[in-house]
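To fix ideas, we reproduce below one chain and its tokenised fold.
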Amino acid sequence: MSKAISAREAQSLRIREALLNACGDLLSEQPIDAITINNIVETAGVAKGSFYNHFPDKEALAAEVSSAIRVELERSVEESNRNVTDPAYRLVRGMCIHLQMAVADPRRAIIMLRGAGWRTATNNPLNEGIKADIADGLASGRFEPRCEDAGVIQVIGAVFFTMLRIIEEQHSAEQAIELATRVFTLILCGFGLREDEAVRIVADSARDLITG
């Protein structure tokens, strides 16, 4: 049986939710550096003192907003790759799902990009899927040994800036597929795949997922 929460706890949850929503709304319009705590609490309609009961600073709030969206994407990646065993396909399909958001829901995509949920450390829980796919590629000989640590940085950087290009230039799905094919082919070639195979994997994945 779930424990009923008190009126005070319910109010605290409402304030936290209002702060998260307000930060998301503001991040959709401008980067966190241009946003003040006063902007956030005014948009949320809560007292400024309430902010510090939930977050130490605006960067922590933005990171939580950004990470929540990326967690949703990682779940989508996991579901999409449920029956996919080739680490090269798994890696590219994960990247393409991120680009699909940039095409279909640019507002949420830019909120995610403007937060601080994009840590490149291999021990970041949000990078576990990328790390696991690279590890599988190394174990199977599919990827070159040089990819073990640098590969995570390459993948995150490629996804981040390709999403940004799609949003800034308002790419259609077809344009995003063409861009993904060029950018992600370079990633796979750097990981040790032949160019013709890399092009096929990226083109297949992008066509399947970005248009979805």
About this structure: The first helix runs from residue 7 to 27. The mean pLDDT is 92.
